[in-house]
Amino acid sequence: MRRITYLIAVALSLGLLAAFLPGSYVAAAPPAATVEVAAADFEFQPQSVTINAGDTITWTNTGAAPHTATASDGSWDSGNLDPGQTFSRTFDTPGTYNYYCRYHGTPQGTGMAGTIVVQAQAQPTPAPATPTAAPAPTEPAPTQPPGVTPSIQANDQPLENNTITVERVVAAQDGWIVVHLDENGRPGPVIGHTAVSAGESANVQVPLDQPPSPGTMIWPMLHIDAGSIGVYEFPGPDSPVTVDGQIVMVQITVTAAGEAAPGQLPRTGSGDMTSLWLLGGLALALLAAGAFIRRRRTA
Ligand SMILES: [Cu+2]
Fold first, then answer.
1. Which residues pair with 44 in a beta bridge?
2. CATH of domain 151-255
3. How far apart are CA 61 and CA 246, in angstroms?
4. Cα separation of 9 and 37, whole Å?
5. Entry pTM
6. What tens digit of pLDDT does each residue of 74-105 get?
7. How far is the CA of 190 from the centre of ligand 1 (A)?
8. If you measure from the C-alpha of residue 81 to the centroid of ligand 1, how many angstroms do you get, rounded to a whole number?
9. Quick check: 218 and 252 in contact, CB under 8 A?
């Protein structure tokens, strides 16, 4: 009996010793891994990743628009990632980390958002995610009927009642004209949208929630109407329309009010007419008063 106790003690000591030996001698925790996540237009792929504590996630912007990977609780942020740029972060503490794209998602997890599940290292490698746990089905790029190539055409212009006018839109299906603010030469946050029907539309008016100051660059962009039809859902299923991998959009500049485009006659507003009448009336009154005074003097 005592001999068995002794053997157990020896075995335990050896085990302890082994635990302190360099990793090459001992079957230690798996080496830290780097897991790739794509920040595509407009979703993270894969949307959910499970890693071990100590592993690193590298996000790569594989899209055409800028994106970010930003912790939903605000504890970390990649900053702006232009197409091709990467951001890496190592997750040492087990837990579930939700994140989103500041341009195309929300901290609440709608739109462009993702999750990182960090497991304690001692746990066995997780089984690959089952198909049912896969991210929400990706909406395929809308297929264009033959002969219809979506396009958008707009010029630099001043705001009229906080509204911009998009000269010409060709849409293969019902959708939206969405106006993005410029961010480093690419479309950033959305500042307005309006519905547009399939086919060709002229002079589409888009009201803006945040009127940009003169000199601001903006990007009118064509989006599809998917998900709930007639409800603007972006970030969400109402994704931008692409033609040959290029988003259908145009960059324009907001000019100062009253700054007429070359070749255009200056507008005469009702306000200008009112002041003209007032001036005319005043001149007539002065003339009449002068005539009255002169007549009184001569009398
Ligand atoms: Cu994004």
1. 39
2. 2.60.40
3. 15
4. 47
5. 0.44
6. 999 999 999 999 999 999 999 999 999 999 99
7. 12
8. 9
9. yes
Residues with CB under 5 A from ligand 1 (ion): 67, 101, 103-104, 112
Domain 151-255 in the same topology as domain 25-129: yes
Query: Hey, where are the domains in the chain?
Result: 25-129, 151-255
Half-sphere exposure of 7 (CA within 13 A, CB side): 4
Distances (CA, A) of 213 to 165, 192, 218: 16, 15, 11
What is the structure's pLDDT at 144? 45
CB 124 within 8 A of CB 56: no
pLDDT for residue 51 is more than 50 = yes
Distance 260 CA to ligand 1 centre (A): 35
As a whole number, mean pLDDT of residues 148-162 equals: 88
Range 25-129: architecture per CATH: Sandwich (2.60)
**Cα(24)–Cα(21) distance, integer angstroms:** 8
Residues 6+ apart with CB under 8 A from 45: 37, 38, 62, 135
- At residue 169, what is the residue type? V
User: Is the backbone peptide bond immediately before 46 cis, with ω within 30 degrees of 0?
Assistant: yes
**43 Cα–ligand 1 center, Å:** 7
Question: In this predicted structure, which of 135-139, 144-148, 218-222, 230-234 has the lowest mean pLDDT?
Answer: 135-139
Task: Give the containing element (helix H, strand E) for 89.
Answer: strand 86-91
How many residues are present in the chain? 299
